[in-house]
């Protein structure tokens, strides 16, 4: 039956083809205004952000009376003529000749026309994708995900599926969730009274991954250029608007490539994504610009046409100190940059996206390449106006000896990294990579300020509903 | 630096553009044959399945001696002239004018030229992507993943990210992994001595998902057509060649669509994927056809050009009974079809892919649409030669009352399904969907017979290495 029903998106995009013809559409009644003999239904079929207006004429429809009493969100199968009307915003409508009721909605449907808070809408995550805001957000999310795949695949990158269940806390990037099938009440114990994970499902302690990077490096050192794109987890009790316990990450890794290549790739990717979503979701982006963030389209347009600034951490610290601005956290060389610092650099000093590179080694991960100064590593963060950090990456330490001494210096266990070290033993090569928090870019692109509103079914502390 | 180094894939695909010119490539030495004054290196740069031959001439290279002693898998930066040679299999080679050694490999490199068993290669998962077999498998895996996204996005499906951490065992599709941050040794207990999950991270018992379908239905009933594509988990102690604890699934869900639409979609998708991979990975597919499964290309070609058969379960049982074939498990109406039955139907009876529909309700899930006969449900399985079942799906029960009584009949808890039921209350609609085990299709396309060899870092009972 589906082929029979044209997508509303097609009616809008190729309206010339259908005007004057009989068309069939199927969708949900978003609103209706029906008088005794005449009426209008705003129908949304899910294929498109915009509704199509359906005109009801009592003389043409047997069930006109029934339709006039129908609760909103009822689903309808509609036959009618597509006609052109003199309305620049909605230049087409359907004059119905037959309307079949597919599913009558209950009048208690909670998404009535009045405005709801985003907080309330989170409690009806099974219905909120039917609202304008979430219809736009989740479609943009889908289109951006595809843009990311398209960007990398067109450049011959291999999409690498790195594991979510991990037996090592190798990156130490954050708190982890334990995975187990042991009886929680009577877990097996070893002789010295510890939990005996050798009897657990995987024969050892396992957790949910915090990053696919180390596995990604394996794949890159075979395929030259790879990317991961999948779920990642953090068991941190942070109730902020920017943190979720389950989120998606994109992690490209490139070989025979240094930090400059890494920044080029990040800049190209961001510009590609923005351009793609502007081209493919014009209605949704218009909506966000109007209702979420008035400067959005201008900001994105500017970003696509700007060259990203590249400065060192040392330079950034100097600039912040010279600025005379009073920060909550004073800046000095060696400290990690706070969001207020990052935003000041990108919003006040440069008014453009800024790569900050070569951070002090003590505030960065063990795998980042040591610079000749012995004090800094080849790290990079990309800061963008309105958000702050959106990408973090580095050139990786490719020298076996340097990596080994770093592992020891940081008190990590050599045996946990045996295969990671072997990558440096069997044909090591200069390589680099970065991580993009997928939700961060969606928030940036939509103007939505809470991460709970860009994930269909968010997981946060004390919340795993739906 | 990366832009300097042309991809070997480009040299092969656009060789006319580069012949007679100086090119730079970077890659790993797969093999070498070097005599006193002259030599050959087979270089693989990861961008392409095939190696490029590099010709070494002592008179042109200062470090010829050093190069002649280099262990395989060393990484090299090469400058030289691309020349045409009279060899249909490898029509181009590089006559090196300069070779820089990027990373010397250790001579203990385990992937020496001799053949290794797949079992052994699993123990060096950090190096096996550099072998011909795994280079081909994981590239095909990447290209198929992209083909799936492309197929659905071109048809205006929304890519829906359903959660991996779930608070409900709603589908009951299999054993689950528990996720917890509780102290395993001293978990908090409730007054009646049970584990007090209200003190766990999410405030309740949580597990890793076995299917995104129920959440997918939420999204479909807002967007008409959606698909999920992500990791899925089964905590089952099965040590078979076809089961992994972590694997990827594709689950489209379509609205205003019945089981016929569902089968059309599945058939179109399978044909699209195969056509795409044949076009985009000809070298890899040639390799599989030669070394993994001699009839592979012929079988795939036949499948793309065949019309898939559609029969009911009742008919399938009749055919199996009439066949006179002696099965390990005798067939009678009401039993679940075993792999031997499935393969007999698709390989012996029809010699083509077969959809089997309308299974007995007692062997299928609660959400499948009840037929008017009261005995069967609108389920479908797609069986393909060489594998058996590759897709399972159904039309979903869209009638509130029927679904409710089914939930009660099967002893499920109504409150666990409150939102799933509400989808039938607020504008329900005919809808359908299916699940494709991503690894199954990769195995089918490559001829690889063990699921551990189509996942870069497989998770199976007692194994979460790498």
Automatic annotation (TrEMBL), chains A, B:
Catalytic activity annotated for this protein? tRNA(Asn) + L-asparagine + ATP = L-asparaginyl-tRNA(Asn) + AMP + diphosphate + H(+)
GO cellular component, alphabetical, reads: cytoplasm
Q: Is Ligase there in the keyword field?
A: yes
Q: Where is the Aminoacyl-transfer RNA synthetases class-II family profile domain?
A: 138-456
Query: Where would you say this protein principally sits, based on its record?
Result: cytoplasm
One GO MF annotation is: nucleic acid binding
Return the PROSITE patterns for the record. AA_TRNA_LIGASE_II
**SUPFAM superfamilies, sorted:** Class II aaRS and biotin synthetases, Nucleic acid-binding proteins
Family as reported in the entry's similarity comment: Belongs to the class-II aminoacyl-tRNA synthetase family.
Q: What is this protein called?
A: Asparagine--tRNA ligase
Q: Which organism is it from?
A: Peptostreptococcus russellii
